[in-house]
Amino acid sequence: MQKNKNCNVVLLGTGNVAWHLGHAMLKSQISLIQVYGRNKTQLTALANEWHVPFTDNLNCLSPEADIYLFALKDGAYQEICSVFPFRNACMAHTSGNVDNSVFQSLTRHGGVIYPFQTFTKGFPLAFHEVPLCIDTNDPECEEKLLFLAGKLSRIFCKISSIQRKQLHLSGVFACNFTNALYTLAQKIAEEKELDFNLLRPLIAETARKVQTHFPEEMQTGPAIRNDTGIINNHIELLKDPQLKELYHILTECIIKNAKNKS
Asked: pLDDT under 50 in the chain at which residues?
C-alpha cells in the first residue's frame, strides 16, 4: 500500500485484544469503519466509546474494508467462516495458535497479525511497543498487514506459522505460568498474614533485570546454589502435595539448566 494511503478496517471481536486494537487504530489514525460482535452489551459499549458504526449481524458488515481483522476466541473461527458473507477479501486474525490457513475456504488473501503481549480490557498500554508478527503466504495480504503493523507499532516482523506457534508457547511460560506462580506466592504469603505488597518490589526487580540480560544470567535463590538445606526446609513448609511437587520440578529445572551452562 502507498505510504500516504489510509487503511479501512472492520474489527470483529469485543474482547481484550479487540479493545486494545481498537484504541491503537484510533490513536494511529487508522480508519476503523465498523466493529462486529455477538455480545450486544460489550459491542454497544465499545462502539459508543470509539464512536464507530457497529453490528451484530455478519450480513450487515461493510463491504468497504481493506482488512477484516478478527480478534476472536480460537474456537470461534470455524463457525464464523461458515457464514462469513464475503469472498476474496483480505482477512487476518490475531491468534498465536490458529492456522494462517483458517480463511482458505473464503479467500486466498488470508493471514495473521499476532500482537505478542498480554492484554486486559481497561488496562491501557503503549501499543507502539507491542511486537506485531505477520504470518501470511499471500503477497497482497502481506503488504496490507505490514502497512497496518507499521502504523500501530514500531516493532513488527514477518514470521512463519511454526515460529508463531512456538512464540505463543514461549509466551505461555514467560507470562501465563509466571502470573500463576505470582498467585501461588500470594497464597503462601497470606497463610502467615503477610501482605502481597511485600512481594511487588521483588517481582518488579526480577522483571527489570531480564530487560537487559538473559534470564539464566540473573537466576538467584537456593536452587542455583544447590542449597539442599534450604530446599528441604521449603518443601517441609509446604503442606499441599501439588505445591511440593511443583517446587521440586522447578528446583530440578534450575539445577539442570545450571549444569548445562557450566
From this structure: none
